[in-house]
Design goal:
By secondary structure, the chain is mainly alpha-helical. The protein contains 3 helices and 2 strands. The protein has a two-stranded antiparallel sheet. A hairpin with a 6-residue loop joins strand 1 and strand 2. The longest helix has 9 residues.
Amino acid sequence: YASRYLGVHRCTIYDYIKHPERPLRFFHSPDERRLLFRGADLIAYKKAGLPKKGRKRKTGNQ
């Protein structure tokens, strides 16, 4: 439940994994069906600041 710990949607976790400058480290489970994250990696990733992602908002009242 990395997404719950980081406070983002689960789809955002995949974006963090593919992030060009600072990818989120993960491991495959023994059956290769799940992605696993070390707690220390999640703590360090959150502490360093999450990459900005999201929709661009229009400025002004349009």
